[in-house]
Specification:
single chain; alpha/beta; Rossmann fold; six-stranded mixed β-sheet; 14 helices; DNA-binding; transcription regulation; transcription
């Protein structure tokens, strides 16, 4: 039999039983004579039958309540993309009884994160999707959800040793190595490199540490000695931000490259442009409108696209595959490391992304 088209009706016909009997064997419910069960199971195994999970889900009246714990895009525009991805997935999955309640927190306020995580937990959702950007604060919640058998999917920041159903996002370590390789190309002699972490407490941001580690490891494997300096900056005070950046830049001899580990490379680009330091090359992350502006002007050389909208979409789909369609899901789903330049930018900007950028500028 063709495994792509075989139906319960076909199995019943071959086993000379009713479709209801086959259904009871498949779902291991109700009474079926042992000889009949063995005969039906043999036909199922030989035909490689797989149940139509979509049809089953459509026929079910069960409602699945998911919860998404995500940063506020009005505070940091990067987070609009995963929110959009979540909402696209909900549109597709609504017919299967899936709904997603969003709990929005300030990405620069750990206490707000804790508050929203507590509110989410109190609603007792069937599944949880979140970006665990506050490493220390999220661990008790991960343990609680794991202990109560609530599946959760992480995105943007990988924490693999606390029981997540899945992680969706980039390999942060490899993205750091990629940034190092991009810097190294065309660099004929050793120079100095500045790593800039913006608006993150680095000891509480595992993904940024992995990016830095990746870049440092890349250059440690090279024959030439490159000097690497790290600085953490707070953008809430523009004058202080620019002064500290200027001190770092002026204090590093032979500085040729700056690696910004967050979506805020545009802040560095703006200050370097103001000071007419166009010979320093910048590599950053994400296609947020301000970054695109400086990429198009040539102030930013490369952007590494983290596909945040796809992260949001796939995260909800992973929960649905596991809970609704009863499918096995991969523990880790790394997304491609896309290198964005001025020359290939337009191929990554779909119409809806362009419209979003125009609204936010």
């Amino acid at each position: 039999m063709d495994q792509k088209t075989i139906r319960i009706k076909d199995i019943a016909l071959k086993a000379k039983v009713s479709p209801g009997t086959v259904d009871r064997v498949i779902h291991n419910r109700g009474k079926v004579a042992e000889k009949v069960r063995i005969r039906i199971q043999k036909i199922i195994d030989e035909s490689n039958y797989e149940p139509n999970l979509m049809a089953r889900a459509l026929g079910s009246k069960k409602q699945y309540r998911f919860a998404a714990l995500i940063p506020d895009h009005q505070v940091d525009s990067y987070w609009l993309a995963p929110k959009t991805g979540i909402e696209k997935a909900v549109v597709e999955l609504k017919q299967f009884g899936v709904s997603v309640r969003q709990f929005i927190f300030n990405p620069y306020d750990a206490n707000d994160f804790i508050k929203k995580a507590e509110e989410l937990t109190a609603t007792r959702p069937d599944g949880i999707f979140l970006s665990p950007i506050f490493y220390h604060e999220v661990l008790p919640f991960l343990a609680q959800w794991h202990d109560t058998s609530v599946p959760f999917v992480l995105f943007n920041t990988e924490i693999s040793d606390h029981g997540p159903l899945s992680y969706i996002g980039q390999d942060s370590y490899q993205s750091g190595k990629l940034a190092g390789k991009l810097m190294h190309y065309g660099q004929s002699e050793p120079c100095s490199i500045l790593i800039v972490h913006i608006d993150e407490k680095i000891d509480n941001a595992a993904h940024l540490l992995k990016k830095e580690e990746g870049l440092r490891d890349y250059f440690s494997q090279q024959q030439d000695a490159f000097g690497i300096t790290t600085i953490e900056l707070d953008s809430s005070d523009t004058e202080s931000f620019n002064n500290r950046l200027a001190e770092a830049v002026d204090g590093i001899a032979d500085l040729r490259h700056i690696f910004v580990t967050t979506s805020k490379a545009h802040l560095v680009a703006a200050e370097l442009e103001r000071r007419q330091l166009g010979d320093i090359r910048i590599i950053g992350y994400d296609l947020v409108p301000a970054n695109l502006h400086y990429l198009e002007k040539g102030s930013i050389g490369f952007l590494i696209n983290q596909n945040p909208e796809r992260q949001g979409y796939l995260g909800i789909r992973q929960l649905a595959d596991f809970l609704v369609f009863r499918k096995a899901v991969s523990k880790t789903k790394f997304l491609p490391l896309d290198i964005i330049t001025l020359e290939n930018l337009r191929y990554y900007l779909e119409e809806d992304v362009k419209n979003t950028a125009e609204k936010l500028v």
